[in-house]
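Posted in: Structural Biology > Protein-Ligand Complexes

Title: Requesting predicted complex, iron/sulfur cluster in pocket

I'd be grateful if someone could produce the 3D structure tokens for the following input. Sequence and ligand are given below.
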Amino acid sequence: MKNGRFDAPGLSVIPKNLSCDVQEVIGGARVVMQSPPQSAVFKPFHVMTKPIGAICNLDCRYCYYLAKKELYPGDHFRIREGVLEAYLRQVIEAQPPGEVTIAWQGGEPTLMGLEFFRHAVDLAERYRRPDQHLTHTLQTNATLLTDEWAQFLKDRDFLVGISIDGPAPLHDVYRVDKQGNASWHKVMRGMQYLQHHAVRFNVLCTVHSVNADRPLEVYRFFRDECGARFVQFIPIVEQRDEGARVSERSVTGDQWGRFLVAVFDEWVRNDVGEVFVQMFDTALAAWLHLPAAMCIFAETCGRAVALEHNGDVYSCDHFVDPQHRLGNIMEIPLTEMVASSQQQRFGEAKRDTLPRYCIECDVRFACNGECPKNRFLKTPDGEGGLNYLCAGYKMFFHHIDGSMRIMADLLRQERSPAEIMDIFARADRNKPCPCGSGRKAKKCHGR
Ligand code: SF4
Ligand code: SF4
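-- Reply #1 --
Done. Output follows.
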């Protein structure tokens, strides 16, 4: 997938086609930024489009977006034809030849109905230049998908991001409907429709205080029971009262670090080249000194804006508020808003507000202080602006350092990073056999 914020082009370990984005398919979406040929100063950007605003059929307890409907009291929350037309025309015109990603999100975008999407896809085709190929992505809770939806998504080659937090007991803790009922079975039904029609899909899993302690159960469920090949993990961090307190649903830094370490250890021994975990792809890019593939790990950000149903454009999906409104596409061209000094300042603040503790950190090249929305702790010497998840990131990036060096070396030698699995298999044979015999693995089950 192209044109977004999550790819690290040129890595053989990274699939060419998809992944997710935070809340974007793909989550948002794995999006590769492209440069248009016309102008050397053009910088690519990504738009998360919310045709139905914050409206959703679920009531996930940690959802940060549901409350955004209060920005538009009394609104009917459906994108108007004129706004749809202006958005598609502007976003397609702004992109260079090649693949152009159109990212649909919410709220729950499928509430717009199938006919809306049939129309939107046809309309987008009208604006497509002959040298472009459009890829539509859809981030959905999957509960409303039907056989007909799946057929359409297959016919139009959508890339679908499914929001799911693991097996039923872990998913249903917080992902419930308006009546508080569990949603997992409906999600799985939707996923089965997609599988039946061979629709490309990712899973997007939020990691919260409950599933964070079950990393292997979550990962193996996606890999073995969902057949997912592209997985994105997003930590739940809900700050309370502008201070250092968080909700009971939030992961702790340590939990987040342990979760990532456990999943990584499983992946690096078994699944390299078969399962693509966005965060691991992105880390490998950092070890190869390539530009950060996810905005949260980039030095600066600001090239991924959110588009509300009425045409309002905001600096970022996580900053949809009056202070971060850049304007409306019916009044100001999208490209102008993305290039505005307000948006430039927003993106550069990610780098310019880093505390000294981060600047001097040995894993800053991979972390870059993560997302500014999570920077509400004080450093050990009392400076503000430290990321709430810092302890987890330090743990994770230190833990994977050796493996990342090996995979980066393999890639530099034009070999497959999947070879690391053999290296681990040989090394693990000298460890005690997991069967508990007390013998080394190479003299027991590892023979
Ligand atoms: S604030 Fe910046 S780093 Fe955080 S999600 Fe938005 S664009 Fe990404
Ligand atoms: S690991 Fe912590 S100190 Fe290092 S860059 Fe990330 S947030 Fe800053």
